[in-house]
Amino acid sequence: MSNTAKAQPVPVASEYTALRARNVDFAWAGTPLHWVPGDPSTTHTINVLHLLLPAGERWFVHVYRQVLPRIRDERLRADVLGFIGQEAMHAQAHDQVLPHLRAQGLDPTPYTAQVDWLFEKLLGDRTLPPGRASEWWLLERVALIAAIEHYTAFLGDWVLGAEALDHRGCDPVMLDLLRWHGAEEVEHRSVAFDLFLHVDGSYRRRVRTWGTAFAALVFLWQRGLRFFMANDPTLPDGRASFREFTRAGRQGLLPRTGAIARSIPAYLSPGYHPSHECSTAQAVAYLERSPAARAAEAEQAPAAGFEQASAGPTGGA
């Protein structure tokens, strides 16, 4: 059953913001392997992001470029273009962490090769006859992205408020990467869902693809954590455990399992819209003080001024 105009979720207008990519850069030379001091399990639970996100976000961009010709709403088209720019930058930023991990003796290549195969082959373009089959596959992937973005916004909202990470003395460069990324996930949290509603909006598809996305994220995350713990050169017998995950959640170093569970009925509610959750104001406030985002702004400002000056006066004599 597809959503009708009457059943369309209502967004919160005040949560909307125009999107733009920020050309950030991070220096990893001073970041230790266990950047959550004394807590390799929590470190590597979050480090899984560096394994999953580059391939996943490049896949988002690839799918959305195929959907662009179908967008009939100009503001949504601008939002999707802003989303594409931000996600491409996210993929690049997390990719740059991987050489630093290799330099510290933890080569993620065996795992990232599997993730690349998942997004490029299993979820990639398929040779399908034009018509219903190819249309179905494209809409399935658009709905999958909307479901995944529900959880990237959830994580972004969590990390923006995770003061326990600061109290623990976590590496400030890694925290800035996570919070810059998290803030932009909150900024663009409605785009994937709005695009899904625009091109399809089937509630059955929303539920089905949520189940696929959630199961895949849980599987890939625990597999990534097990890989990191088993291959960490400083851990002679490193093992992942659910007990450690719940312990870190109680300490505020990771999301609580209860909060993750409550995110499920939120997304599956027929009236769900991402703008009902998280806070754009909180995200923008962090982006205004993020060291990496501020440095990117300072670097882009002279370039913008030069372009304006080069254009010369536009008025007549």
Q: Can you tell me about this structure?
A:
The protein is mainly alpha-helical. Helix content is 67%, strand content 0%. It is built from 13 helices and no strands. Helix 1 packs parallel to helix 4 (109-122), helix 2 packs across helix 8 (191-199) and helix 5 packs across helix 7 (172-187). The longest helix has 29 residues, at 132-160. It starts with 39 loop residues before the first helix and ends in a 6-residue tail after the last helix. Mean pLDDT is 92; it is low at 1-6.
Features:
317 residues, mainly alpha, 67% helix, disordered N terminus
- Report mean pLDDT, rounded to a whole number: 92
Order of helices and strands: HHHHHHHHHHHHH
Strand content: under 5%
- Given helix and strand content, the structural type is mainly alpha
Rg of Cα set: 20 Å
Assembly category = single chain
Map the helices and strands.
Blueprint: H1 40-67, H2 74-95, H3 97-103, H4 109-122, H5 132-160, H6 163-167, H7 172-187, H8 191-199, H9 203-231, H10 242-250, H11 257-268, H12 280-289, H13 291-311
Helix pairs in contact: 1-2, 1-4, 1-5, 1-9, 2-8, 5-7, 5-8, 5-9, 7-12
Quick recap:
The protein is mainly alpha-helical.
